[in-house]
Amino acid sequence: MELMDKLWNAAKENKQRIVLPEGDEERTIIATEKIQKLGLAFPILVGNEEKILEKAKELGVDLTGVEIINPEKSDRLQDYINAFYESRKNKGMTLEKADKIVRDPLYFGTMMVKLDDADGMVSGAVHTTGDLLRPGLQIIKTAPGVSVVSSFFIMMVPGSKYGENGMLLFSDCAVNPNPNYEQLAAIAIATADTARNLCKIEPRVAMLSFSTMGSADHEMVDKVRKATELAKELRPDLLIDGELQLDAAIVESVAAQKAPNSKVAGKANVLIFPDLQAGNIGYKLVQRFAGAEAIGPMCQGFAKPINDLSRGCNSEDIVNVVVLTAVQAQAQNAK
Ligand code: ACO
Fold first, then answer.
1. Which of 102, 151, 176, 199 could disulfide-link to 297, CB 3.0 to 4.6 Å?
2. Residue owning the nearest CA to atom 33 of ligand 1
3. Domain enclosing residue 112, as ranges
4. Could you tell me the CATH number of the domain that includes residue 122?
5. What is the pLDDT of residue 107?
6. How many angstroms is it from 137 CA to the middle of ligand 1?
């Protein structure tokens, strides 16, 4: 069964409450009908109810049974303002500023997740990645034992011999502009855990560079080398290796030449990029040139799942990201 089919079934088995703060956005409204009708989650739209229902009518969309919350009318608004103020007052937050900030749907939705009125959040059809991440980083924060929030893409090229039958996880392509070696190690470990827990594959993690096993000397290579050592030390149960060039990581014949003793080289199914420029360019190259389906960017490392959409997304993409968020929420609720 395809990965997404498996995840859809998993989402239906234990439905999660997923808040969509861009409640009056057309693709979001269309996706919400599908999520509700197929029983993939309990979607919650944030926004002005009349405006949302009017738009749904124009689109021919039936939102029967979908919860719609207008922050201005919510009886939880004051609780959210107070909780946000309490958590940020040592950073200079005042009650007056909190009162303005929390009325913003993205902050309101994040507070719903924080105070357990929702299990996860999906947004980004209109807002930028930074708009979503900032409230997440300020309010939800990282899961216990996790030092850094990062992102991953599930890249799928049907028929390809690379990775896990054409599926690879890429990280970090959307959050950390220039991680230090400790952060890079944390990103590698988080992505390996995502491969195991969400994609149900045994990760083989390649730490990418322009050097393979000492073929070049540069401070940029040193960072990847140190991150590899640290990640191996922290998680001896995982197969992590580096530094590896991309071809040595995924092509068996190149690996046999350049890294013959590596258990990862030539067979990697998780690719860790050294910084955001490499990661972001890398995933877009594979998406465009190889025609890969790029699912994400999904966040990992938050205490509760919140996820971003590409502004170019369609309603199907929103449904899939809601499903992935719901499955992440199930895993977190089970802990
Ligand atoms: N993990 C955990 N905490 C973090 C992280 C992280 N990766 N980054 C920042 N924080 C924390 C900070 O410690 C701070 O906490 P505090 O306020 O409680 O002290 C809080 O988050 C806010 O930090 P700032 O430094 O104020 O936030 P910043 O302005 O750096 O924004 C952001 C962080 C939004 C992640 C920024 O790094 C960013 O814009 N990243 C790139 C996003 C992007 O443009 N991606 C490319 C497009 S996506 C695509 O193409 C698919």
1. 151
2. 134
3. 2-141+302-333
4. 3.40.50.10950
5. 97
6. 7
Please say if the pLDDT value at position 335 is more than 80.
no
Burial of 88 (0-12, 13-18, 19+ CB in 10 A): middle
Q: How confident is the model at residue 320 (pLDDT cuts 50, 70, 90)?
A: very high
Helix axes 315-334, 3-13, angle to 10 degrees: 60
Residues 279 and 226 in one domain: yes
295 within a domain of the structure (yes/no): no
If one residue of 97, 107, 137, 277 were mutated to test the ligand 1 pocket, choosing by the most ligand atoms within 8 A of its CB, it would be 137
- Asked if 251 and 276 touch (Cβ cutoff 8 Å), the reply is no
Residues 131 and 13 in one domain: yes
One-letter amino acid identity for 188? A
Place of tokens 């690996």: 255
Q: Which of 175, 300, 309, 311 to mutate to test ligand 1, by most ligand atoms within 8 A of the CB atom?
A: 175
Q: Residue 184 C-alpha to ligand 1 middle, in angstroms?
A: 15
Residue 177 CB less than 6 A away from ligand 1:
yes
Residue 138 beta carbon below 6 angstroms from any ligand 1 atom? yes
Q: According to the model, what pLDDT value does residue 3 have?
A: 86
Same domain? For 126 and 181 the reply is: no
Residue where the block lists tokens 């937050």: 93
- Average pLDDT rounded to a whole number, residues 50-68: 97
For residue 184, what is the domain's CATH number? 3.40.50.10750
Q: Whose CA is nearest to atom 27 of ligand 1?
A: 134
**pTM score, two decimals?**
0.91
Question: Is residue 1 pLDDT above 70, yes or no?
Answer: no
Kindly state the average pLDDT of the residues 122-129.
Answer: 91
Q: How far is the CA of 149 from the centre of ligand 1 (A)?
A: 8
Tokens, residue 32: 């919400």
Nearest C-alpha to atom 10 of ligand 1 is from which residue? 137
- Shared domain for 113 and 46, answered yes or no, is yes
The single-letter DSSP state of residue 260 is T
Percent of the chain with pLDDT over 70: 100
pLDDT mean across residues, the chain: 95
Of all protein residues, the one whose alpha carbon is nearest to atom 13 of ligand 1 is 137
> Is residue 142 in contact with ligand 1, taking CB distance under 6 Å?
yes
